[in-house]
DNA sequence: AAGTACTAATTGGTCAGGCCAGTTGACCAG
DNA sequence: CTGGTCAACTGGCCTGACCAATTAGTACTT
């Protein structure tokens, strides 16, 4: 309840500062940044720190580092990074709502294209999921495989990637603890049943049914999630390194 | 047509190696990695290099670095980075197809929720776009504002982010040059007309119409893009640092 | 015996300075 | 004007060191 300190690491601050200068247009697209040594001097930090900050921006796709030449601004907009520290603006419900909208459309499209091989892939994920409802990590993996498997039916790599990214977003430390109170084989089995309904609708070529089943699944997922609210901030232990690692969150 | 040379930077190689160990499960989720000093020794590189590699993985959301404690595996799946070097598996058409599916659903949803303020925001983007059809960079910015503006109507931060990310994906060096041959005020004006149709349907609360208009827009965008094929590999110059920076790609 | 306060080892964060390799542009010979 | 050389950047990587946060162990108190 206390300390908002945070004490961000220095290279993060430097990265933020440069990112801001790019976003504001102070550093135009295509322009070359000052040399690492100059940046270090201007910002009063060491060169390694500047390098680490620039690597962050490079991974984010904002700048392009060319050896021996310089560092160039590639794009202006953040192209936000998937993992790590996202602003808590995107809450669990927001994420699930977005998934509902997008994955419903994907399921609808998939229903009209599914071939036997695709269904077999979904079945494999379902079978695997059913066998590991007691393993919090393995069951998440099977869950993920099912959702990305539906996107794979459409045969579009971008859709597969986006679906996977949205799924992975709940793995963040922030999300991780929220659902640890209501997880269990029982709720996983409920999720599995909903998965089966989706699978059947897609296998039958029922576009509307697949869309409805997916919406029902994510709605139920949201409800399971909301039921865990009100108690998630009860205990603040589990900081030790030997405790259970970050488990899953909501069944989807 | 020649040199595929690459000579990946060392810290990239280290990052790839660790990423692989995580993906293969050799480093389990929640597990603590060896200390930076140990990793440096085991990999026969210096500690700064290890640090840079770990920062890459942290930005990607794969690991969680805790000062004084250690480095922990957060998730197993790549959660692919948005910018930089994506596999060329995702081509322009794949991207546009994915956008068609997702943004149509968003437009459909937005039509039922749009308030006067939202429409005003879209109009602002349209006006701005009309005024800068000759500025390849500024027009892209207005284009982006329109598409994310539609997502904003739904009021979901995740949707806004995903829409923006997909838009930004064409800024990559790979995509950038592809469309430089057919860009121009004329095609931008066509895109602007299609935008207006989408705006009108949303303003009228016509969900089906908004969906159709968005689909038409992205289909046309795809067509404009395909017309530029067959000639995009004609000239390979424009490497100089003072040339025009990466311009836009397809009008959307 | 249990809990607490303190201490020491471990680990990431930052810095300084240096050398190497690739890039670039100016200069010079043909 | 063409081609090659060369020197001045610029990023890539390294060594070694110190600081700060965390954590585990220990001695002390209750």
What's the layout of helices and strands?
The structure is a homodimer of 252-residue chains.
Chain A: H1 10-23, H2 36-43, H3 47-59, E1 63-66, E2 70-73, H4 92-111, H5 116-131, H6 136-154, H7 157-168, H8 173-176, H9 185-203, H10 207-227
Antiparallel strand pairs in A: 1-2
Helix pairs in contact in A: 1-3, 2-3, 4-6, 4-7, 4-9, 4-10, 5-6, 5-9, 6-7, 9-10
The structure holds a DNA duplex (30 and 30 nucleotides).
What descriptive keywords fit this protein?
homodimer, 252 residues, mainly alpha, Arc Repressor Mutant, subunit A, Four Helix Bundle (Hemerythrin (Met), subunit A), 2 domains, two-stranded antiparallel sheet, 2 strands, elongated, disordered C terminus, DNA-binding
Explain what this protein looks like in three dimensions:
Chains A, B: This is FadR family transcriptional regulator. Two copies of one chain form a homodimer. Chain A is mainly alpha-helical. Helices cover 58% and strands 3% of the residues of chain A. Chain A has two domains: 64 residues, Orthogonal Bundle (Arc Repressor Mutant, subunit A), CATH 1.10.10; 136 residues, GntR ligand-binding domain-like (Four Helix Bundle (Hemerythrin (Met), subunit A)). Chain A contains ten helices and two strands. A two-stranded antiparallel ribbon of chain A has the order 1-2. In chain A, a hairpin with a 3-residue loop joins strand 1 and strand 2. The longest helix of chain A has 21 residues. Chains A and B meet through helix 3, strand 2, helix 4, helix 6 and helix 7 of A and helix 3, strand 2, helix 4, helix 6 and helix 7 of B. The structure holds a DNA duplex (30 and 30 nucleotides).
């Amino acid at each position: 309840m206390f300390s908002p300190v945070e004490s961000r690491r220095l290279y993060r601050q430097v990265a933020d500062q440069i990112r801001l200068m790019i976003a504001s247009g102070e550093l135009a697209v295509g322009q070359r940044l000052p040399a690492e040594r100059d940046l270090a001097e201007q910002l009063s930090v060491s060169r390694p720190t500047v390098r680490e900050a620039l690597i962050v921006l490079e991974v984010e796709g904002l700048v392009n580092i060319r050896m021996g030449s310089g560092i160039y601004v590639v794009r202006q907009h953040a192209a936000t990074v998937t993992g790590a520290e996202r602003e808590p603006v995107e809450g669990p419900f927001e994420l699930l709502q977005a998934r509902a909208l997008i994955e419903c459309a994907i399921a609808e499209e998939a229903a009209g294209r599914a071939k036997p091989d695709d269904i077999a892939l979904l079945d494999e994920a379902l079978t695997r999921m059913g066998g590991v409802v007691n393993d919090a990590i393995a069951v998440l993996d099977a869950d993920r495989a099912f959702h990305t498997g539906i996107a794979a039916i459409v045969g579009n790599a971008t859709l597969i990637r986006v679906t996977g990214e949205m799924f992975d977003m709940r793995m963040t430390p922030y999300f991780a603890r929220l659902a640890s109170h209501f997880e269990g084989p029982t709720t996983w089995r409920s999720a599995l049943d909903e998965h089966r309904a989706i699978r059947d609708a897609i296998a039958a070529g029922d576009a509307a049914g697949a869309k409805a089943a997916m919406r029902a699944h994510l709605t139920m997922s949201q409800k399971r999630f909301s039921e865990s609210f009100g108690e998630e901030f009860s205990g603040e232990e589990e900081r030790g390194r030997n405790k259970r690692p970050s488990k899953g969150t909501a069944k989807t």
